[in-house]
């Protein structure tokens, strides 16, 4: 289980990027984190994976625990090794490598047998990737690249999969497919932390949601209840 308590992060400026943020993702749960540009969503994911330093950011308060272990004292590879895996924003697949090679890289730390088993599972989830196994990443459509980025993260056998705006720049029908796949991954027992600006999609695939505004949690609750709130209706669902 992921437990973030009173997290505060700064990039050195006068305003903190995150302040007093507390978020929980239960074992096998599905949680989303909503918020507009600059609200601090990516910063939160960077904090969990402990790669803030690369962006000159720093945790200045609070704690992040996964299954009781304090994550902010570990390095990124060891956090991945614990089963906390990120699908970064912008997909960041290796365009010159094939689908198959991209997937293999995601499973680097495992035995050959385990890699093959997990890859078959990924191909079951994404038949399109199997069809395109030998195609270079850069020749795939945006939706296919997003599927590949998710597939590559799954190769690391996550207990918790964190996705940073997977719907960004995708057509509505593809967004729906991405949502379905996230639901399926969660139903198989992987916990989900979904970062989205597309509240409609996020509320549809998760049970609980937090809204970040200016680096703070401004609203949280069961997704069914949040859908009914005026704030969500006005700001994120485009009606009301
Ligand atoms: P987006 O959807 O645009 O990625 P976000 O909700 O993920 O937005 P963050 O990227 O986490 O927001 O940004 C939170 C705040 O931290 C913003 O004010 C942003 O300008 C600042 N910030 C983010 N990265 C850096 C950085 N590397 N250096 C300085 N400030 C940064």
Structure notes:
The chain has a six-stranded mixed beta sheet with strand order 6-7-8-3-9-10, with helices on both faces. Strands 2-1-4-5 form a four-stranded antiparallel beta sheet, with helices on one face. Strand 7 (160-164), helix 7 and strand 8 form a beta-alpha-beta unit. 36% of the residues lie in helices and 25% in strands. The chain contains ten helices and ten strands. By secondary structure, it is α/β, with parallel strands linked by helices. Adenosine-5'-triphosphate (ATP) binds next to helix 1.
- How would a textbook summarize the main sheet? 6 strands, mixed
Total DSSP helices = 10
The helicity comes to 25-40%
| Strands side by side in the biggest sheet | 6-7-8-3-9-10
| Run of helices and strands | EEEHEEHEHHHHEHEHEEHH
Family: Belongs to the ABC transporter superfamily.
Protein name: ABC transporter ATP-binding protein
Keywords: Amino-acid transport, ATP-binding, Nucleotide-binding, Transport
InterPro entries: AAA+_ATPase, ABC_transporter-like_ATP-bd, ABC_transporter-like_CS, BCAA_Transport_ATP-bd_LivF, P-loop_NTPase
């Amino acid at each position: 289980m992921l437990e973030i308590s009173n997290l505060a992060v700064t990039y050195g400026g006068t305003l903190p990027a995150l302040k007093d943020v507390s978020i929980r993702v239960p074992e096998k749960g599905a949680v989303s984190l909503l918020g507009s540009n600059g609200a601090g969503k990516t910063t939160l994911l960077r904090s969990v994976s402990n790669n803030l330093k690369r962006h000159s950011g720093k945790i200045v308060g609070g704690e992040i625990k996964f299954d009781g272990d304090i994550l902010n004292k570990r390095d990124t590879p060891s956090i991945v090794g614990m089963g906390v895996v990120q699908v970064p924003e912008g997909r960041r697949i290796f365009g010159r490598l094939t689908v198959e090679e991209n997937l293999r890289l995601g499973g680097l730390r495992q035995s050959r047998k385990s890699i093959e088993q997990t890859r078959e599972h990924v191909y079951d989830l994404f038949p399109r990737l199997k069809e395109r196994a030998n195609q270079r990443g850069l020749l795939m459509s945006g939706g296919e690249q997003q599927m590949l980025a998710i597939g590559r993260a799954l190769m690391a056998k996550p207990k918790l999969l964190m996705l940073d705006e997977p719907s960004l720049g995708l057509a509505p029908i593809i967004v729906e497919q991405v949502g379905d796949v996230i639901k399926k991954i969660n139903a198989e027992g992987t916990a989900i932390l979904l970062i989205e600006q597309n509240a409609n999609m996020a509320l549809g695939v998760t049970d609980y949601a937090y809204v970040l505004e200016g680096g703070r949690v401004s609203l949280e609750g069961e997704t069914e209840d949040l859908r009914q709130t005026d704030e969500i209706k006005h700001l994120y669902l485009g009606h009301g």
